Amino acid sequence: MEYVLGHGTENDFVLLPDAEGRLDLTPATVRALCHRRRGLGADGVLRVAPSEVPGAEWFMDYRNADGSLAEMCGNGVRVFARYLVEAGLVTSTEFAVATRAGLRSVVVGDAGEVTVDMGPAVVGAESTAIVPSTAGPVGSVTSFPGVAVDVGNPHLACVTSADVDALDLTVAPGHDPELFPHGVNVEFLTPLTDTLTTRLRVHERGSGETRSCGTGTVAGAVAGLRAAGGTTGTVTVTTPGGVLRVGVTPATTTLTGPAVLIARGEVELAGSADEPYACTRVAEAARA
Ligand SMILES: N[C@@H](CCC[C@H](N)C(=O)O)C(=O)O
């Protein structure tokens, strides 16, 4: 199986070119590919499949590292767009990509940045995230107020003056299963400064803590503006993996940042359809 590795602010992906749309991508296959020790290692998989939707030639079939499907991936779609341009699969640097959340328009810049129109981010109910306390008795927890934000996929964005770098995100934060019946991505971010900057960490549904999350960054920016009494602006978000810019207008949101292709090669999967699969890198080349 041919693959390409890429990342957007260190949110990393295995891209699987599938121009014929023939690849049978099971959850076990995705888990094997994403495994950090036995596989190629990634936060998720992006199958590059032909689109059946008018307006886009290519469909981003995104899967989380645990094999689950998600509606949208903001960093993923930027890396996907970079790949389409570099592989010569599109003739322009401005085009739409089909996702499970609908069409997303991208602009691939020549300085390494990709911008995606993420669509409107819809603010929902207030709720709380529960994380293990790092101080206090073993087993104690801390509750963080947050707000639901739908960016095509579900988020709970918590603006907090606590030290976000000290939070224990090794386990999924507790959340209200009635508000988020399909699980949720949870962001913790510092209050916006006067120049609309913030620091953000995220625990992703289906992937654990990641170095960055594009949809989470948009959700965080919208929640940060709301907490500051605003609704629009350009927010600069520093994640552990790098810096992203989010534009928020009454009509839509945009996400801008680097999208990088790292390596390409071939991988073989051995084993049964059930786990464990073993991944063997057959051939590999770093990107020129
Ligand atoms: N890392 C992605 C989000 C991937 C999907 C998410 N884990 C979910 O299950 O909704 C991003 O950059 O947006």
From TrEMBL:
Query: Which catalytic reaction applies to this protein?
Result: (2S,6S)-2,6-diaminopimelate = meso-2,6-diaminopimelate
Main subcellular location of this protein, as a coarse class: cytoplasm
Q: Provide the site residues for: Could be important to modulate the pK values of the two catalytic cysteine residues.
A: 155, 204
Pathway(s) this gene product operates in, as recorded in its UniProt entry: Amino-acid biosynthesis; L-lysine biosynthesis via DAP pathway; DL-2,6-diaminopimelate from LL-2,6-diaminopimelate: step 1/1
Query: Which residues are listed for substrate binding in this entry?
Result: 11, 64, 74-75, 153, 185, 204-205, 214-215
Q: Which residues form a coiled coil?
A: none
Q: What does this protein do?
A: Catalyzes the stereoinversion of LL-2,6-diaminopimelate (L,L-DAP) to meso-diaminopimelate (meso-DAP), a precursor of L-lysine and an essential component of the bacterial peptidoglycan.
What protein is this chain from? Answer: Diaminopimelate epimerase
Q: Which organism is it from?
A: Actinomycetospora aurantiaca
Upper lineage ranks? Bacteria, Bacillati, Actinomycetota, Actinomycetes, Pseudonocardiales
